[in-house]
Amino acid sequence: MNNNNQGPLSGVRIADLTSVLLGPFATQILGDHGADVIKIEGLDGDTTRDIGPRQSDDMAAVYMTANRNKRSLAIDLKNPDGKAAFLEFLKTVDVLVHNMRPSAIKRLGLTYEDVKKVNPNIVYCGAFGFSQEGPYANKPAYDDMIQGVSGIAATQSQLVGRPAYMPTVLADKATGLTVVYAVSMALFHRERTGQGQEVKVPMFETMVQFHMLEHLYGEHFVPAKGSAGYPRATSPTRHPYKTKDDRMIGCLPYVDKQWKAFFTIAGQPELMDDPRFCNISARLANIDALYALLSDIIVTRNADDWLRDLEEANIPAVPINTPTDLITDPHLVETGYWKELDHPTEGKLRFTGIPTSFSETPGDISRLPPRHGEHSVEVLAEAGVKQENIDKLIAAGVIKNKTE
Description:
The protein has helices at residues 22-32, 61-65, 80-90, 102-107, 112-115, 143-149, 152-155, 157-160, 170-193, 203-215, 231-234, 256-265, 280-285, 287-298, 303-312, 330-334, 376-382, 387-395, and strands at residues 13-17, 36-41, 70-75, 95-98, 123-128, 197-202, 241-242, 248-251, 317-319, 339-343, 347-351, 399-400. It is of the alpha/beta class. Strands 6-5-4-1-2-3-12 form a 7-stranded mixed sheet, with helices on both faces.
């Protein structure tokens, strides 16, 4: 595919020194919106290249979901000649993103202080497990660990009876989105002032902010006016509801008008006068009983009847989709969300769409996930590394290209 992505970040070059999901998800979004993202990989490649179904050894499903709109440079950064070539490349980039522990990036000699010597105006973003100013600074961090230490797993106890991880890599993805907006803001600052800077995005603090938005609750006050935890979100009776025909729907009357309409549809309008449910404060104080009642009411009718009547009353209600259902969800199909594209080595592939839209600078899927080292030669040549030096690096096994 030709790189014709004219998104809002067109012209921005990013050195993507990330792996697994947090960083690659972030840099993929930047690439979706026009940035020229160069994925920097060791000679063994990103570990996700081996996770999930695959047609080729280095092109597994999990890798491909987070690495479109990128080029791949496979290089041994521990080798002095490889590092020297990489530093030449860094002179041409606007942004470097990495998700290594501080000790690892220091051993490579690629800290912010190191990199700004060759590129003083670079936006340098490090995504870490924990803030570098605290005692957890050098702890290793994976999504499960951050869900645990940030309180998310413990909050699940109120729903499932024990601490539990969310069945998605929530911390990785939320922190990845934070990297996207942090890098974008730093680029905006540089556009106005010409000044680069170091940006740090810690997973732990990011997820505490994310989690405690509603759950700080009573602890928002000093001294506290109650415990932490938003009762509506932690109610054990808050869940998808079973209908008479054994389907599941999500339903959320919220304001007084919606509850009045719901009780009317249910044939029990008098419930709006029940002191437990008559206003939002009363409903919150009795949320477990309210949602248990909702469950008892919804099971009396078929799903299609509920969805029709609730939509007419402007009450939020949806069918409960499985991940497989999403492939044929009528809204996603109608809007053309899923993109099916032919990869030159992997065959036809399905990709998620780009959820954001811009009237003047829309993003695009202009590059399919690269093979390991597919663009090593062209990236270094663009950076001004002489062909004879590139040939030496290939011969010495310092870089890998797709023909090997």
